[in-house]
């Protein structure tokens, strides 16, 4: 198995932030930054000690693909994407590290909200519904079954916790308290739903159900709202295969669910310092590649060689 790249070392650039999966580096243009995806994998907000080979490149190329599709389908959409080009002037060994796994993006003030949209009931939404009949505090129809489609997609934000803490589900009416003002919060909600619907329709044509997904948004100095971060990847979304989908049954895992299921089975949910067995890493990598191929129509290896 090819080695996974869990640490990104770029001595010629200044690292400005490091998330669970990505490292952000400054670029000569003060309004841009280099957004680099490592092969690290997090589940239940904890990063595994080992990674998934090529995952960073798969996520980066998939996000870039979606930024293009979404911009075509929603012409008014602003995104942080600038280019997949390796920044000019960086040493060859650093260029080979970031090739395919980095995007030059607009540097923006990220809004403190995880803009989750759910088309189908599963995960924490299913748990809350079983316990209280609500989803993020929203009343839901009675008698819903696992994996059932909501009458229409719902916006179910969560807080964006600081490193080490867990995001908390909140009622959409409370999102403005995290974001700062109601006007921005309303725009984010409308935008998240519009993007989800466009993406879900696109994916459905390709045999994939986007059960739920998480977007992040940011503002520029003029107050314009941008779609940022990664988009519609297996890390930020639950993808289900349309074939074989059945209400009442947990759909076959098509993404990180694979890892989540293993962690739960082993009693390692949200435990620090977990090393995934090699077969789980290989199988997860294959799932990511399969999702890439189904959604983009191009094999990851071919996309990466371009
Ligand atoms: P977080 O909970 O902060 O999202 P994470 O562990 O998911 O943490 P990563 O995905 O590893 O984070 O790192 C990406 C980070 O970059 C996130 O904090 C995200 O909010 C931030 N980010 C995304 N797009 C931009 C942008 N255009 N400008 C500045 N920061 C950005
Ligand atoms: Mg993230």
UniProtKB/TrEMBL annotation:
One Pfam family from the record: SAICAR_synt
UniProt keyword list: ATP-binding, Ligase, Nucleotide-binding, Purine biosynthesis
UniProt-recorded Gene Ontology molecular function terms: ATP binding; phosphoribosylaminoimidazolesuccinocarboxamide synthase activity
CDD domains: SAICAR_synt_Sc
GO biological process: 'de novo' IMP biosynthetic process
GO cellular component, one term: cytoplasm
EC annotation from Swiss-Prot or TrEMBL: 6.3.2.6
SAICAR synthetase/ADE2 N-terminal domain residues: 16-272
Keyword Nucleotide-binding set for record: yes
Catalytic class of the enzyme: ligase
Pathway terms, separated by semicolons: Purine metabolism; IMP biosynthesis via de novo pathway; 5-amino-1-(5-phospho-D-ribosyl)imidazole-4-carboxamide from 5-amino-1-(5-phospho-D-ribosyl)imidazole-4-carboxylate: step 1/2
Database matches in PANTHER family: PHOSPHORIBOSYLAMINOIMIDAZOLE-SUCCINOCARBOXAMIDE SYNTHASE
Family: Belongs to the SAICAR synthetase family.
The protein, known as: Phosphoribosylaminoimidazole-succinocarboxamide synthase
Organism expressing this protein natively: Metarhizium brunneum
Lineage: Eukaryota, Fungi, Dikarya, Ascomycota, Pezizomycotina
């Amino acid at each position: 198995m090819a080695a996974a790249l869990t640490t990104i070392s770029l001595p010629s650039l200044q690292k400005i932030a490091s998330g669970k999966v990505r490292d952000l580096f400054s670029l000569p243009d003060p309004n841009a930054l280099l957004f680099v995806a490592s092969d690290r994998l997090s589940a239940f907000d904890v990063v595994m000690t080992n990674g998934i080979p090529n995952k960073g490149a798969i996520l980066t190329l998939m996000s870039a693909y979606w930024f293009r599709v979404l911009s075509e389908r929603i012409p008014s959409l602003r995104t942080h994407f600038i280019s997949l080009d390796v920044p000019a002037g960086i040493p060859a060994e650093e260029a080979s590290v970031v090739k395919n796994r980095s995007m030059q993006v607009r540097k923006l003030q990220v809004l403190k909200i995880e803009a989750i949209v759910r088309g189908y009931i599963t995960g924490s939404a299913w748990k809350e519904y079983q316990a209280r009949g609500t989803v993020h505090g929203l009343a839901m129809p009675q008698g819903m079954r696992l994996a059932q489609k909501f009458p229409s997609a719902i916006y179910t934000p969560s807080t964006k916790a600081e490193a080490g803490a867990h995001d908390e589900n909140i009622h959409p009416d409370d999102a403005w308290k995290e974001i700062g003002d109601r006007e921005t919060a309303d725009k984010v909600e409308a935008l998240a739903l519009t993007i989800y619907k466009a993406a879900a329709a696109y994916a459905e044509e390709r045999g994939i159900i986007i059960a739920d997904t998480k977007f992040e948004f940011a503002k520029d100095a003029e107050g314009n709202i941008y779609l940022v971060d990664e988009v519609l990847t297996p890390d930020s979304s639950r993808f289900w295969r349309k074939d074989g989908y059945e209400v009442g049954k947990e759909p076959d895992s098509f993404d990180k669910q694979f890892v989540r299921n293993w962690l739960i089975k082993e009693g390692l949910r949200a435990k620090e310092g977990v090393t995934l067995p090699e077969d789980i890493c290989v199988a997860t990598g294959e799932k990511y590649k399969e999702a890439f191929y189904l959604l983009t129509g191009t094999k990851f290896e071919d996309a990466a060689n371009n």
